[in-house]
Amino acid sequence: MFDLHYWPTPNGHKITMFLEETGLPYRIFPVNINTGEQFNAEFLKIAPNNRMPAIVDHDPVESGPPVSIFESGAILLYLAEKTGQLFSPSLRGRVEVLQWLFWQVGGLGPMLGQNHHFVLYAPQKIPYAVDRYVNETSRLYAVLDKQLADREFIARTFSIADIACYPWIVPHQKQGQDLALYPNVKRWFDTIRARPSTVRAYEKAKSVQAQPAAMTEEARKILFGQNASTVRR
């Protein structure tokens, strides 16, 4: 049994997608990031970066006490290695999956996150910042489109690389992107969206948060007002 500390964000969706795809047993512990639950002492014991998702594995391979993991990329890799699913058994296959997993956690996620911030949440519109991140988003979409030109999935077979990237493409319209301009991404996106496991994962999100809450000033301060003192308190 896995405990999943979760909120329905792109990084949160990654883990429910994996768990639903593989049928692993899990229970969700909501972490409402808009009200500051990510700063609760018990959560910080397993996620010292005060970010979700995080998991606790109560049945680790090497036995002993439960294993906790934070950072969505590390969680996907842990689950894939433990189960032997959604990860290639060959060296070359693993390298391909890993480089695209790292591409997502090091590039696609952070850049699209900045796109979301300056386009949707910043209290003042800064044209340079908006252009910078919308343009970088389009570049990354083009990279992914090129990768998918001769294959159905990012690393040829469905893997944690696809699961890592898909939730970040879901809000493509809010990111200022038209999937019609990236036909290979659109085909890939539609294929993954139709998978029963993806449907189930996003239904789970609705059970945690019926609909996205409006951004209040309090939530804005919690999400975007953090600094070193936030960690040290």
UniProtKB/TrEMBL annotation:
One Pfam family, short name: GST_C
Span of domain GST N-terminal: 1-87
Superkingdom, taxonomy of origin: Bacteria
Ranges in coiled-coil conformation: none
Domain GST C-terminal: 90-214
Transmembrane segments: none
Protein name per Swiss-Prot or TrEMBL: Glutathione S-transferase N-terminal domain-containing protein
